[in-house]
Write a structure and sequence with these properties.
Mean pLDDT: 86
Oligomer: single chain
Order of helices and strands: HEEEEH
Shape: rod-shaped
Structural class: alpha+beta
Radius of gyration: 28 Å
Largest sheet: 2 strands, antiparallel
Distance between the termini: 93 Å
């Protein structure tokens, strides 16, 4: 009978250790709350690449993924 109790205690300790390890992994894999905020995605007017609104560069004719694409687009489409 005492062996049954010892086995049950060992199994309980193993189960608790395993469940606490899962909780730690789950918390570590979640991004911080500030990274969870979603932003609208905008397409570059030159190449069509989608990027967050905060990273897009405004220009004549839309938004762009970089300074080079903004310059190329504005060179190809002069202002009227």
């Amino acid at each position: 009978m005492k062996y049954l109790i010892v086995i049950l205690v060992v199994l309980l300790v193993l189960w608790l250790a395993r469940s606490s390890r899962r909780t730690v992994r789950r918390e570590a894999s979640q991004p911080p709350s500030s990274a969870r905020q979603q932003q609208p995605m905008l397409a570059c007017a030159h190449c069509g690449l989608h990027l967050p609104r905060d990273e897009a560069l405004p220009g004549r004719g839309g938004v762009f993924c970089g300074e080079a694409h903004r310059a190329e687009y504005e060179k190809a489409h002069p202002a009227p």
